[in-house]
Amino acid sequence: MKKKDVHSYTYAYEYIRDQILSGKIDPETKLTETSLAEKLGISRTPIRSAIAKLEQEGLIKNKRIFIPSSIDMRNIFQVRILLEGYAAKYCANFITENALLRLRECVDIGHNGTTEEIMNANYQFHQIIVEEANNPLITDIIERMQSIIYLARKTVVQQKRPFLIEEHELICNAIESHNGELAEQLMIEHLQKDLEFSLNHISN
Amino acid sequence: MKKKDVHSYTYAYEYIRDQILSGKIDPETKLTETSLAEKLGISRTPIRSAIAKLEQEGLIKNKRIFIPSSIDMRNIFQVRILLEGYAAKYCANFITENALLRLRECVDIGHNGTTEEIMNANYQFHQIIVEEANNPLITDIIERMQSIIYLARKTVVQQKRPFLIEEHELICNAIESHNGELAEQLMIEHLQKDLEFSLNHISN
DNA sequence: AATTATAAAATTGTGTACAATTTATTTCAT
DNA sequence: ATGAAATAAATTGTACACAATTTTATAATT
């Protein structure tokens, strides 16, 4: 699909990541460099790079798929609450006009879009807020957790958690009216509800 | 705890890391796999692993040493404030007796130790609080920032920032008396002062 | 049968050669 | 000289062979 991403290790990374996230790999199986290399028809070197990256993203641990426990999920969401809560508060004062428009668009898609579109809009909504916090480190940290966050988002969107979009809308409104404290509080509650719903609806 | 760390990539990692942190590498020079491999007398493969790790720790960027700007430092400390502030608050309720003792010991060493001992005690002080928050992800994130945090700590300790140890003592007291809100607030102010001092006393 | 010791297999770590790509240098036309 | 194009050099990406290590299976001892 890309021209620039001809590199084998990118290909391997995306392939393995998709296999894990779509649940096509039995969680028990050990991901060995050799077998993956054979399956993809490339050498072990790029496979190793790909696994290293997935390991630092927390999707793989000790060469095995890492399925987050409830506690792991709570830990991840605690970090999200701290960082995204801060980002929401910060946004209320410093968000750009353009970003606010895109944020509003995410809410709209949330109301009218297809499941796939909503999945993406949901991601974008949080991403915009994080990026508008103007702290690349925070963006990085959140980015690193995406693979696991994805699992929760899939659950929440596909199983249609109630008030999901309405909560986005409230956050959006709070940011628009420059109410940082409210935006932060709403974001915290929003994430807590996402967490609880995910834990009670373990899909795959 | 010390395993068979004969692995070349561990050796390479520690060597390169030390060279950077002690300022022995000119920030302009590009860290090429080949030249490092030659210098250390090993092959490029383990060098590559080492560089990948240092890159994800933020000490290297695009194969060049990453010297954090003032803005970068502020961003890093913003994350510390969020995570360590939370950890301090959490600690006030859930810290173990043993950890509290070790925390107190760090304060004592801060008063009486040598510069090197204080450096380590300072690290330990923050580390204990972070670990007692019982969230391995938070521990990981902080751990990943250590290399850069080290630069600030060196400045603060070696140039004897006023009230450094006293602030630790106050935080320790707040935790001991289960005053979470106070512990958090003190930690935030403590980190802010560390940041400002570091920015005004750029040592290397 | 359980436990330990030994051997075999699988897997990861490392070195090295070469290909692909990026970066630096030279050449040439204007 | 300046800038574009061509070329050379440096560097990274990949494959593969072999060594070191870890894991698994097998045998031996109690």
Explain what this protein looks like in three dimensions.
2 copies of one chain form a homodimer. In chain A, a hairpin with a 2-residue loop joins strand 1 and strand 2. With 204 residues, chain A is mostly helical. Chain A has helices at residues 8-21, 33-40, 44-56, 70-94, 97-112, 115-132, 136-158, 164-176, 180-200, and strands at 60-61, 64-65. Chain A folds into 2 domains: 8-65, Arc Repressor Mutant, subunit A (Orthogonal Bundle); 70-200, Four Helix Bundle (Hemerythrin (Met), subunit A), CATH 1.20.120.530. Chain A binds chain B through residues 49, 52, 56, 58, 72, 75-76, 78-79, 82-83, 86, 135-138, 141, 145, and chain B through 49, 52, 56, 58, 72, 75-76, 78-79, 82-83, 86, 135-138, 141, 145. The structure holds a DNA duplex (30 and 30 nucleotides). Chains A, B: It holds the Pfam family GntR. Chains A, B: One of its GO terms (molecular function) is DNA-binding transcription factor activity. Chains A, B: This is GntR family transcriptional regulator.
Oligomer: homodimer
Strands of chain A, total number: 2
Q: Give me the CATH architecture of the largest domain in chain A, please.
A: Up-down Bundle
Strand order of the largest sheet of chain A: 1-2
The top level CATH class name of the largest domain in chain A: Mainly Alpha
**CATH homologous superfamily title of the largest domain in chain A:** GntR ligand-binding domain-like
Taking the alpha carbons of the first and last residues of chain A, their distance comes to: 28 Å
Number of helices of chain A: 9
Order of helices and strands of chain A: HHHEEHHHHHH
CATH topology assignment of the largest domain in chain A? Four Helix Bundle (Hemerythrin (Met), subunit A)
The largest chain-to-chain contact, stated as pair and per-chain residue counts, equals: A-B, 18 and 18 residues
- Let me know the largest β-sheet of chain A: 2 strands, antiparallel
Pfam families (chains A, B): FCD (PF07729), GntR (PF00392)
Keywords (chains A, B): DNA-binding, Transcription, Transcription regulation
InterPro entries (chains A, B): AsnC-type_HTH_dom, GntR_C, TF_FadR/GntR_C, Tscrpt_reg_HTH_GntR, WH-like_DNA-bd_sf, WH_DNA-bd_sf
Organism (chains A, B): Lysinibacillus composti
